[in-house]
Amino acid sequence: MLLGAALCIGLLSNCTTTQDESRPGTGTPPAEMKVSGESIAEMTAPPLVPKPVGNRAATKLIVNMEIVEKEGEMADGVRYLYWTFNGSVPGSFIRTRIGDEVEFHLKNHPDNKLPHNIDLHAVTGPGGGAASSFVAPGHEVVFSFKVINPGLYVYHCATAPVAMHIANGMYGLILVEPEGGLPPVDKEYYIMQGDFYTKGKNGEPGLQPFDMQKAVDEHPDYVVFNGKVGALTGENAIKANVGETVRLFVGNGGPNLISSFHVIGEIFDKVHVEGGDLVNKNVQTTLVPAGGAAIVDFKVEVPGTFVIVDHSLTRTFNKGSLGMLTVSGDENKQLYSGKQTEGIYQPEGGTIQKMPGAKAPDAPKAANLEERIAMGKTVYAKTCLACHQDNGLGIANAFPPLAKSDYLNADAGRAIDVVLHGKTGEITVNGQKYNGVMPAQVLSDEEIANVLSYVYASWGNKKQEIKPGMVAAKRSSH
Ligand SMILES: [Cu+2]
Question: I need a labelling partner for 280 at 20 to 30 A (CA). Which of 209, 212, 328, 391 fits?
């Protein structure tokens, strides 16, 4: 939008205010609308959405969002460490109306390992809020913005490496309703597609780390709705009754793939193309770009199971982008007289488990160096791998290598300090300068001893055992 304004200045002749033409209502420009009162935004996890705004006036709307990093189930037996807004993928749905002044409270849970921020595409301002929302674990930031363009917008984390934060689940939708609200419908749901990149191939069990190279190559192992295989199938299917109108708020977090969004056996009566004001009618498949959205309305006339897909179908049948809408009610033989078969499009099964909390019970103590290294490897996978990577090589210009790191090998006491207390400011590792933020790690003395012993035993580093006592001494000397 800022770009649009700049272009407008450049092309003096053709400079109408396109914003106001498309907007019904009082005629007050949204940027100048007064707000009355104050309320706390209702926030919902997918596939639910908050109540419509209806006729309420523009208000000061307080949005509370907490970033939570937690392990969950990507598919049967496949675990993944998700990074989330309010604990779900996609994050909580935010519902506003034009002219609202949003006071955004972004908290980063103290158990998290990483700093994060948020870029809301509904924001007019630098980085969509990213510039003012960078927040370390255990901290909260507050910033405000006025929503002045109606539509359905994506929000996402924009902390480097951005694609990695998005690939781990850090995205969601914010709706800006026009004055008076969108036309009412009977059922509304929230669906967001995302592509996921795991070390192991699709279906390989166990905790699967993020794979940066597959992300760079745009070769996802999973393409799913609402964060996991089966989030919208079987008993998690979204529901409606014959004769009802259904509205889907559809988003695509990406980070890479675009979605050819389609519901098998339905035609979209109305689509807000790209989530904006342009309404197309009688649409079979609508394109939802990465970092984009669409509002899809249709009426369900016959009962049965309607399968929701990305019509790039190998994704759907081999990688998970499959959901279901179950419509109950009486048959309408005039419209559809066929046999109904349920569940045929469910190759991966429909079991769903809740994402449990990330906290594990206290680990047992290592009896010898070998055990210490083995336990340290687990700590590494959960705590360090996200940044320093599986192979210890880090990520160019963002996270320094631990493999053959001269910085690490020169001073074990300093390495303990880095893990205990975090590190910011410029450092040089193997001749390369880094100036990032390593957050202090919330780990016990035993865990820090184990993980550093593992790091020292790996990737050509000098073998050195770090004992819990050494960590305890550093902790108390600080
Ligand atoms: Cu993030």
Answer: 328
- The two counts, helices (H) then strands (E), for the chain are 12, 25
Q: Ligand 1 centroid to 332 CA: how many Å?
A: 48
Distance from the alpha carbon of residue 159 to the mean position of ligand 1, in angstroms: 5
**Please, what is the angle between helix 445-457 and helix 369-383, to 10°?**
100
The two tokens of residue 443 are 């780990």
Half-sphere exposure (Cβ direction) of 306: Cα atoms closer than 13 Å: 23
> Chain centroid to CA 344: how far?
29
User: Ligand 1 centroid vs 158 CA: distance in angstroms?
Assistant: 6
CA 224: distance to chain centroid?
12
User: Model confidence over 316-375: pLDDT tens digits?
Assistant: 989 999 999 999 998 777 777 655 443 333 333 333 322 333 334 455 789 999 999 999
Across the chain, mean pLDDT equals 87
pTM of the complete model: 0.69
- Give me the pLDDT at residue 341, please: 43
**Local confidence band at 435 (pLDDT 50, 70, 90 cut-offs):** confident
DSSP label at 116? B
